[in-house]
Design a protein that fits this description.
It is built from 10 helices and no strands. It is mainly alpha-helical and about 190 residues long.
Length: about 190
């Protein structure tokens, strides 16, 4: 396994100290080797640790640094992960208009790159953003689209997330309010 696989495995296990240790070492190695894609991946991993720790300013700072490095490569593909974290930071900070703008840009980028799983993930997060903006019909439309794509594409890993979006129908039918959880579907 390489850095990306190792760091994702540690992140999924919840071992944020190990993720941070590995990512700092990789960032140092990547800078010394002028390996921009590896540096972006390392900074992205650190930004996710900050996000998980609810240190939103640090997550924003690290994701911006990763995006700046990514932009030097002329490879749109490596811009995607830092942009994903920047959108999440905006949403979790309560800047839903900015989050919407960033998620829509992420969806467009992932469509351009031919990454349907990432389009689905960003659409799911945009659904929660639309809820916060009070756009229940748009949120429902997004969650329905996510569900349809999950089953059409056989994306089994995303099935558990569908239950959260499905909560809209019963709550709305009962006249209740829907308070979306502070969840961020992250496409690893």
């Amino acid at each position: 396994m390489g850095f990306e696989d190792d760091v994702r495995s540690a992140f999924r296990r919840g071992d944020t100290d190990e993720v941070a240790r590995m990512a700092r070492a990789e960032a140092t190695r990547a800078r010394a080797a002028a390996d921009a894609p590896a540096e972006v991946e390392a900074l992205y991993a650190l930004s996710r640790v900050a996000l998980r720790g609810n240190d939103l300013p640090r997550a924003e700072e690290l994701a911006r640094a990763a995006l700046e490095v990514a932009l030097t490569t002329q490879s749109r593909a490596i811009e995607e992960r830092p942009r994903h974290v920047l959108a999440a930071v905006a949403r979790l900070s309560g800047d839903y208009a900015l989050a919407r703008e960033r998620y829509l840009a992420g969806i467009a980028l992932n469509e351009e790159l031919g990454r349907p799983e990432a389009v689905n993930s960003e659409s799911y997060n945009l659904g929660f953003t639309e809820l916060h903006l009070g756009h229940l019909d748009r949120a429902r439309e997004l969650f329905d689209g996510v569900r349809d794509r999950v089953f059409r594409n056989g994306d089994r890993e995303f099935v558990p997330y569908l239950a959260v979006g499905a909560r809209l129908e019963p709550a709305d039918a009962l006249g209740g309010s829907v308070v979306p959880p502070g969840h961020d579907a992250s496409h690893d």
